[in-house]
Amino acid sequence: MFHRRYRSHHDAEFALKNFLKISRPEPLSEVQMLKTLNSFPEKDNRVIYFHVPYCDRLCSFCNLNRKFCGGSTEERNKTLEKYTDYLIQEIDKYSGYEYIKSKPFKSIYFGGGTPTIFSTEQLGRILKEINDKIPMAKDCEFTFESTLHNLNEEKVNMMKNFGVNRFSIGIQTFNTSGRRMLSRSFTYLETVKRLKVLRNQFDGTLCIDIIYSYPGQSIENIFNDSNTIVSCGVDSVSFYSLMLHEESFLSKQIDNGSVLFDRTLESDKKYHNSFYNSLIKKGFTLLELSKLVKPGKDEYRYIKLKYLNADVLPLGIGAAGRLENISIYRMSPTRNFYGFVNPKFDFFHEMLGRMQYGTYDLDYYSRILNEKEFKAFLKTFNLLNEKKFFEKKSHNYYTLNTDGVFWGNNIAIEFMKSIIESEDLNYHQNSVDFEKKSH
């Protein structure tokens, strides 16, 4: 049925914007942004996202918003010291506004890059500033993305003391040759050793990223990754088919023929389903289309709130977010882009977020869609159900089966496309209250 797979919710969001014909918004002046910052916030769902665009080792497949921070120890420390001062200044600046200080934040997320690239002292200064200046909910989910080689006992203990309670570790694969292919540090044995040490030291939520369908991978590698995840006591795993970014080192190797890569949709599904079913049999459950968890061990509140169109205060070069109906992108320490969020996109983005969980409550969609839209939705559902992507759990309540999870983002886009076409782009103007209207 599908000839191309949307491998992540980012792919699906991009496709959704194309269907909605949403272009970049007209820029707003900083005056408009300051008006919002000086007002009292209406939303209770609030997140802060920090972006650290530095890595001391570049993954072969990545070409995202990050820079190599190498050179001499002195040069590296100078760069990171400057960025430390910049983030502290940003925290101090924004924490003084009414909009930021009036309500607690439910999640803080450090992404990158490699946010733990800082020295223990530098990172301690940043975390102290957050604790001193930012109102946080008592159960605030406080996440850092990291690599294993950027963590040590001293740094982890310091982070725990400042409230960090969730790590997302970029493992990608435990297989030694695969790690070498993806430019990861350490062999299988060293990776397992370090991850187990971290598990013993850290009593918070421990998550890892895994990549499948990379050049040279075998089914045996898939099962080895699955077994190792369990033996290391990992709480959740985000798993993605290799997404090659243009101009990345690995992409260039494939283009010039020095690395053979013959992925097909069938081979992609084979690897996905093998990994997915293996962890399901080991007691993991689906949290979202690309994330499996031990029951009750990981909420992943940051992404959940983003799906709900929550406020996301972005700090750091390359960070993006929104406050109320204004989108924000940090281009540099002195340049920011502001624009109005499109309410048409908000409605469908929230729906896309709900569909990431792999559950479909037909009664819910009958409530939030008008008669014409729901008729189009139901027609698409019946077509997809005939293709055997769903399992019926109760009256009008379905979940995706293994193949459905593999095609989950395509399925979500099919639903939204049918709704959009049914109304000839006659969108809802108000975002759906996910929490109040969920079954």
Provide a quick synopsis of the model:
The chain is an alpha/beta fold. The protein has helices at 9-20, 30-37, 73-95, 98-101, 120-133, 153-161, 176-181, 188-201, 219-231, 249-255, 265-281, 301-307, 343-355, 362-368, 371-386, 402-406, 408-422, 434-437, and strands at residues 46-52, 54-55, 67-68, 105-112, 136-146, 166-172, 205-212, 236-241, 285-288, 291-293, 311-315, 320-323, 326-332, 335-340, 359-361, 390-394, 397-400.
Write a structural description.
This protein has 439 residues and is of the alpha/beta class. Strand 16 (390-394) and strand 17 (397-400) form a beta hairpin. Strands 9-10-8-7-6-5-4-1-11 form a 9-stranded mixed β-sheet, sandwiched between helices. Strands 12-13-14 form a 3-stranded antiparallel β-sheet, with helices on one face. Helix content is 44%, strand content 21%. The protein contains 18 helices and 17 strands.
Shape: globular
Instruction: Report the β-strand fraction as a percent range.
Output: 15-25%
Q: State the major sheet.
A: 9 strands, mixed
The radius of gyration computed from the alpha-carbon positions, rounded to a whole number of angstroms, is 22 Å
Q: On the 0-100 scale, what is the average pLDDT?
A: 92
Weakly predicted, low-confidence segments: 425-439
Task: Please give the order of strands in the largest beta sheet.
Answer: 9-10-8-7-6-5-4-1-11
Number of helices: 18
Structural category: alpha/beta
Helix content: 40-55%
Measured distance between first and last alpha carbons: 30 Å
| Beta-strand segment tally | 17
